[in-house]
Design a protein that fits this description.
Strand content: 15-25%
CATH topology: TIM Barrel
Distance between the termini: 7 Å
Strand order of the largest sheet: 7-6-5-4-3-2-1-8
Oligomer: single chain
Number of helices: 10
CATH architecture: Alpha-Beta Barrel
Radius of gyration: 17 Å
Order of helices and strands: HEHEHEHEHHEHEHEHEH
Structural class: alpha/beta
CATH superfamily: Alanine racemase
Shape: globular
Largest sheet: 8 strands, parallel
Number of domains: 1
Length: 236
């Protein structure tokens, strides 16, 4: 099956990279500012074999259990492992032990749990604070109104390194709505970094359907799954 994924990536990866390059060029940004996170969630280990062979070394997973299994299979040094999905508080320690970067810290309480895990893991936990910039009730995250205060406080926790912010835009085709969601995250980042040096500049925003708008609004990480690997089961 890895040959099937390899064949797919031979076509899809250049296409995705071209989209990223065009989007960066259109707004005068160096393409090197935008990191491609290949989202392998729900795909088998063969997808990761093909991804690594294609030079993709930033890999994203949505579930702690799946991330644990893949890290165990390939080794922690095989890739930079990103946890992009929601984390239950009781799984915070497990997520911290296998993730190089956790994108989905959606509350102060989760941040505190991750910080407490440092004593057990003996490592700094790198995270992004998830902000609900769309205001949708179905999405979790810090509210824009409280984000600066609460994320600033979270970034002071020992053992926790807040590398930046993350958001998920509505799944719509309206460029104005998408641009507003992404632009709000960028502005919040600017506010935070004007009052503290404990929050980094990373902006994880943009997926297959909206990466161009996200890059225009300052994204430094785009999380791409379907455009690279297809829908789950499509290669079987």
């Amino acid at each position: 099956m890895s040959d099937t994924y390899a064949a797919r990536l031979a076509t899809t990866l250049p296409a995705v990279r071209e989209r990223i390059e065009r989007a960066a060029s259109a707004c005068g940004r160096p393409v090197e500012e935008v990191r491609l996170i290949a989202v392998t969630k729900s795909h088998p280990v063969e997808a990761i074999v093909a991804a690594l062979e294609a030079g993709l070394t930033d890999l994203g997973e949505n579930r702690v259990e799946e991330l644990e299994g893949k890290v165990e299979h390939f080794g922690a040094e095989a890739a930079r492992w990103h946890m992009i999905g929601h984390i239950q508080g009781r799984k915070a320690n497990r997520a911290a032990s296998v993730s190089d970067l956790i994108h989905s810290v959606d509350s102060s309480r989760l941040g505190e749990r991750l910080a407490r895990s440092v004593d057990e893991n003996e490592r700094v936990v790198h995270v992004l604070a998830q902000v609900n910039t769309s205001g949708e009730e179905s999405k979790s995250g810090f509210t824009p109104e409280r984000a600066v205060e609460e994320i600033h406080a979270m970034a002071e926790l020992p053992g926790l390194c807040v590398d930046g912010l993350m958001t998920m835009a509505p799944f719509v085709d309206d460029e104005i709505v998408l641009g507003d969601a992404f632009g709000r995250l960028r502005r919040l980042s600017e506010q935070l970094r004007s009052v503290t040096d404990t929050v980094g500049p990373e902006l994880s925003m943009g997926m297959t359907n909206d990466l161009e708008i996200a890059i225009r609004e300052g994204s430094t990480m785009v999380r791409i799954g379907t455009a690279l690997f297809g829908e789950r089961g499509s290669t079987q």
